[in-house]
Amino acid sequence: NAGVTQTPKFRVLKTGQSMTLLCAQDMNHEYMYWYRQDPGMGLRLIHYSVGEGTTAKGEVPDGYNVSRLKKQNFLLGLESAAPSQTSVYFCASSHRPWERDNEQFFGPGTRLTVL
Amino acid sequence: AQSVTQLDSQVPVFEEAPVELRCNYSSSVSVYLFWYVQYPNQGLQLLLKYLSGSTLVKGINGFEAEFNKSQTSFHLRKPSVHISDTAEYFCAVREGTGGGNKLTFGTGTQLKVEL
Fold this sequence. Notes:
The complex is a heterodimer. Chain A is mainly beta. Chain A has strands spanning 4-7, 10-13, 19-25, 31-38, 42-49, 56-57, 65-67, 73-78, 87-94, 105-106, 110-114. The termini of chain A are far apart. In chain B, strands 2, 5, 6, 10, 11 and 12 form a 6-stranded mixed sheet that branches. A 4-stranded antiparallel sheet of chain B has the order 3-9-8-7, with no helix packed on it. In chain B, a hairpin with an 8-residue loop joins strand 10 and strand 11 (104-105). Chain B is globular, with a radius of gyration of 14 Å. The model of chain B has no long low-confidence stretch (mean pLDDT 91).
């Protein structure tokens, strides 16, 4: 099993450009998450999904959109990138919270720089 | 709303010495607690978790943590650290089994093990 994978690993954008980050998991998890990690701030939840076709806002959703068209994939989009979105982005997935072994599994991260 | 405080942003320690990384949380409901480790340029990996039962939880790599409800703490300990334990450690809390299984993370503690 590959676990949670993220594409791309690195990306540099200019202000105003758009891009999509792809997260894929092969563990048949219902729940998926997107976080951003900034120095001294830990991880903050951007959006999450509790199943195929569903999405919900997290702590810092502004400037991002997400889609979960297939159970195994969770896409994070930036429509008009801003320097404040320079960060490391992590995807995670988990079973439903009332199930056994429901911890979140994390991908390796995408380092995004917006100039 | 729940929150997590990791008071120490950096903890230097000599190899083979014991270490304690502190974590305090605030929540008005029952919680589930986690410690994750992040090695340089990698994603987060689960060290251990407290869901219920014994308040002393053992994890991977010789780490353990103790849940103290009265002090709302979940400190991480290791009796003898190794150079390979150098990493950033995150404490996280989840409230109950609803709400999207969302985690709230602390700001992280950088553990630096020196010879």
